[in-house]
TrEMBL record:
MF (Gene Ontology): aromatic-L-amino-acid decarboxylase activity; pyridoxal phosphate binding
Top EC class for this record: lyase
Protein name: Aromatic-L-amino-acid decarboxylase
Species: Adineta ricciae (Rotifer)
Family, as annotated: Belongs to the group II decarboxylase family.
SUPFAM superfamilies: PLP-dependent transferases
GO cellular component terms, A-Z: cytoplasm
Keywords: Catecholamine biosynthesis, Decarboxylase, Lyase, Pyridoxal phosphate
Alphabetical list of PROSITE patterns matching this protein: DDC_GAD_HDC_YDC
Length: 476
C-alpha cells in the first residue's frame, strides 16, 4: 500500500463524508428508487483494469447515494436510532487501518486489553453489579449485535443445562434434551429472540404481557409450572428493558425471583434503553439485574458509537468458555490462563478492534457529554408529546414507565385501518419517516428521536406534517 495514496484518498473520503453530513438535512429521508435500480447503473462484471480513486468517489453520489435511506437525517423517526459521531468514525478508520484481529490475547494484546478496560468503564458508568466486571468471574465483551448476544447467551445456557442433566443421566444426548427445553420471553420481545430459538432448536413460549406491555413474574411462574407438569424443562428467559414496539420495561425483580427459584438463566435485552442507564435518574429500571446471568445493550443505538458495538456482560464467563471452547494447536498461546481469549465468548473466531470506538467516544464526549445527549433526545420526545397531547384527534398509547426517546400514538378511538392509512400517507409524503407497530391488536405509529442533528425545530416540523396529513386524511 502506498501511504501517500492513502493520505490523498483518505482526504477525499473524509471530504465526502463531511459534505454528506452538511447536506443530509436537504436529502429526501427515504430513497426514492425501485428495487433493482442499481443494476441499471453499474456494469455487469467487475473491472479488469484498475480505476482511479477519484472516479470511484465521483460515482458514489450518482449511483449509491440515491439508494441510501438517511438514518441520520433529522427527519428520520423510524425504528430505534443508530448511533454515529466523528470520534467513532475516526476510530473505525483506525480499526480498519491497524487491521489486527483480536481473537486471543496474543493475537493482538491491546485489542483484548482495551476491550476489557472500556467494558469495565461502561459497566461502572451504568452502575452494573460488580459481578459483571472483568475483575471477578464475569466480564464484558463487544458482540456485533443484540441478536448475536441473545443467541450466544442461549447457547451458553443450553450448554449449562446439558452439563447439569448429564450428571444425573450420563446417557442423555443433546438431541433428547432439546426436545424438552423451553425458552421464555414476553409477547413484546424482539424478533431476534424467535430467531435465536429457531437456530438453537428450542421451543419458545411467549408470556402474555400485561396491559402496559410488561412481562411479570406471576405469569412466568404459571407458564413454568404448566410446562414442568408436561415433562418439559424450562431453562432460559429473555427479559426486555425497552421493548421495540413501545419501550416497555419487563418487571425484572419479579421475573428474576422466579428465575432464581426455578433455576432459569435470565438474559436481559436492553438493546436501546440500556444506553439511558448511564444517567442516574434511569438506573432504577435496572433493579433486579442482580438475578441476570447475562445482559446486553447496544451503544451502537444510542451512545454515539457507530454500528457495530453491542455491549454484552456475563456473570460467569466459564459457562461461555465451556460452551464455545475449541482449542487447536495453532490458536494456543502461553498466556491463556492470564488474559481473556474473547474467541471463547463469541461465535466467530475473528474480531475487529471495536473497543477503539468506545474508547474514542468516552474520551471525546466524556460521560457528561453522553448523558447530555441521551437527555436531549428524551426532552425532544417530551416536546413532541407536548405538541400532540392537546390535539383531540390523537391519543398517546402504551406510555412506558420512562418514555425515553420513543412516543407511540394513534388516531383517537379509530379503527386500525385508518391508522394504517395515516402512516402510509405520511411515508408517501416523504418529508419524514416513521414505522408502525401492532400492539395488543392496535395498530400504532411510533416516533423515535433518532438523529444527533434533531432539534426542536425538526420535531415541530414533524408535528406540523403529521397534523397536516391527518387533516387531509380525515377530510376525505
Ligand atoms: N432487541 C431489541 C429490544 C431491539 O429493539 C432490537 C432492535 O431494534 C434488537 C434486539 C436487535 O438489535 P441488533 O440489530 O443489534 O441485533
Amino acid at each position: 500500500m502506498d501511504a501517500d495514496a492513502l493520505i490523498s484518498c483518505g482526504a477525499m473520503t473524509l471530504q465526502f463524508v463531511a459534505e454528506y453530513w452538511r447536506s443530509i438535512e436537504k436529502r429526501p429521508v427515504v430513497a426514492n428508487i425501485q428495487p433493482g435500480y442499481l443494476r441499471q447503473l453499474l456494469p455487469l462484471e467487475a473491472p479488469e483494469q484498475a480505476e482511479s480513486f477519484t472516479s470511484i468517489i465521483k460515482d458514489l453520489e450518482s449511483t449509491i447515494m440515491p439508494g441510501v435511506t438517511h438514518w441520520h437525517s433529522p427527519n428520520f423517526y423510524a425504528y430505534f436510532p443508530t448511533a454515529n459521531s466523528y470520534p467513532a468514525i475516526c476510530a473505525d478508520i483506525l480499526s480498519g487501518g491497524i487491521a489486527c484481529i483480536g481473537f486471543s490475547w496474543i493475537a493482538s494484546p491491546a485489542c483484548t486489553e482495551l476491550e476489557a478496560i472500556v467494558m469495565d468503564w461502561l459497566a461502572k458508568a451504568m452502575g452494573l453489579p460488580e459481578f459483571f466486571l472483568s475483575s471477578g468471574n464475569g466480564g464484558g465483551i463487544i458482540q456485533g449485535t443484540a441478536s448475536e448476544a441473545t443467541l450466544v447467551a442461549l447457547l451458553a445456557a443450553r450448554s449449562r443445562i446439558f452439563k447439569e442433566r448429564k450428571v444425573e443421566d450420563p446417557t442423555l444426548t443433546l438431541g433428547r434434551l432439546l426436545d424438552q427445553l423451553v425458552v421464555y420471553c414476553s409477547d413484546q420481545a424482539h424478533s431476534s429472540v424467535d430467531k435465536a430459538a429457531l437456530i438453537v432448536g428450542c421451543r419458545l413460549r411467549k408470556i402474555a404481557s400485561d396491559a402496559d406491555c410488561i412481562m411479570r413474574g406471576e405469569q412466568v411462574q404459571a407458564a413454568i409450572a404448566e410446562d414442568r407438569a408436561e415433562g418439559l424443562i424450562p431453562f432460559f428467559i429473555i427479559a426486555t428493558l425497552g421493548t421495540t414496539p413501545t419501550c416497555a420495561f419487563d418487571d425484572l425483580v419479579s421475573v428474576g425471583r422466579v428465575c432464581e427459584k426455578e433455576h432459569l438463566w435470565m438474559h436481559i435485552d436492553a438493546a436501546y434503553a440500556g444506553n439511558a442507564f448511564i444517567c442516574p435518574e434511569y438506573r432504577h429500571l435496572l433493579n433486579g439485574i442482580e438475578y441476570a446471568e447475562s445482559f446486553d445493550f447496544n451503544p451502537h443505538k444510542w451512545m454515539l458509537v457507530n454500528f457495530d458495538c453491542s455491549a454484552m456482560y456475563l456473570k460467569d464467563r466459564t459457562h461461555f468458555v465451556d460452551a464455545f471452547n475449541v482449542d487447536p494447536l495453532y490458536l494456543k498461546h502461553a498466556f491463556q490462563s492470564s488474559a481473556p481469549d474473547y474467541r471463547h465468548w463469541q461465535i466467530p473466531l475473528g474480531r475487529r478492534f471495536r473497543s477503539l470506538k468506545l474508547w474514542f467516544v468516552f474520551r471525546a464526549m466524556g460521560l457528561d457529554g453522553l448523558r447530555a445527549y441521551i437527555r436531549k433526545h428524551i426532552e425532544l420526545a417530551k416536546y413532541f408529546i407536548s405538541l400532540i397531547k392537546p390535539d383531540e384527534r390523537f391519543e398517546i398509547v402504551f406510555p412506558a414507565a420512562e418514555q425515553l426517546g420513543l412516543v407511540c400514538f394513534r388516531l383517537k378511538d379509530s379503527p386500525n385501518e385508518l391508522n394504517e392509512r395515516l402512516l402510509k400517507a405520511l411515508n408517501e409524503d416523504k418529508r419524514i419517516y416513521l414505522v408502525p407497530s401492532m400492539v395488543k391488536q392496535k395498530y400504532i405509529l411510533r416516533l423515535a428521536i433518532c438523529s444527533w442533528l434533531t432539534e426542536e425545530k425538526h420535531v415541530r416540523f414533524a408535528w406540523d406534517i403529521i397534523s397536516e396529513v391527518t387533516a387531509k386524511l380525515l377530510s376525505k
